[in-house]
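Protocol step 4 of 6: structure prediction from sequence.
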Amino acid sequence: MSEALAHLVGQSVADIDTPALVVDLDAMQRNLTRMAEFARKHNVRWRPHAKMHKSAALARLQIQAGAVGVCVQKTAEAQAMVDGGVHDVYISNEVIAPKKLARVAELAHRLDAQRGRMAIAVDSIEGINRLAQAMSDANARHGADARIDVFVEIDVGQGRCGVQPGPQALELAQAVAGHSALHFAGLQAYHGKAQHLRSPRERRDAIAVATDDVRFTRKLIEEQGIAVDLVTGAGTGAMVCEAASGMYGELQAGSFMFMDADYAANERDPAQPVFEHALFIKTQVISQSADHAVCDAGHKSHAIDSGMPRVLTQEAGNELDYFNGGDEHGILRPSVSGGRIPTIGRMMWLIPGHCDPTVNLHDFMIGVTGGLREGVVERIIRVDARGALT
């Protein structure tokens, strides 16, 4: 724990210096409970993306709540999770560089010795062969026969990684099955674009197409005698569609735990649990003029790839909007003409547009209980995988 923050534990929310990344632990726990209940109700596994919070402590909390493990996107993120005591990690991304694959193979051996599990996604013969070589080399070094679970990624609409559904995926599944150190575990079928389609109808239509692609590909592979034990994918935006599809057995939703402003802009599907905002930037007004105020939370404290943060309304009828003020400043203006300008020293709360890259800007998150008005600091949460890009 940072010495500069350790003294805050037990202190009032009012004592938190600004700008700071704050987690409402009560809201976060309610989100976790609702997600766990949803997964049980629909009889699907739940493997949240730890790339969202980048914290081994929060990953362990998710597993205690019912998650089977976590997803990550980078080898360095996987290392941070394993070092932090997480024993079931899936790199839901392609890793090609031999040095990175050597690290993946070492993680597979560490987890195998701990009766844990390491998994990874592939979308090319070259990637499969390089992974198999890394595992073979590691097995020779350790004098052991560890295996790694491998998911073949198909492109179901994201337009990023993944082969086309159908014969190309079959070819990769057969290639994985041909290597003794690799275990074909199923299909990776994540439709990221569908997560941010605003209406439930749009999301249902997009996932219906993805489900058809999964069904076709799965049937093709199983007809060749290769079991497709699991299809994994889904995110916070469309998870009710994947859960209801009958094809997806595992949900990778992760942002629900903090619920950023962009996901909150989606029209909620009635079948989806109500998730609350739990991640905030605490800031304060440092300057005031006739038509605006300036706060001390600029873009160094929050990501703007999904838009500007939303100002948490503290007084009904006195809403504020946040505008670009640069690296260190935010411009606050009343949402309606005639609204009050916040005074110098006023504490404000911002809801980040995108939680994942916002968390990556901070070394620590400050966890509070009892709410943002009268709460107290309960714990300091280290962002273990901050900057884990390799």
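Step 5 (inspection) to follow. The two ends are 24 Å apart (CA to CA).
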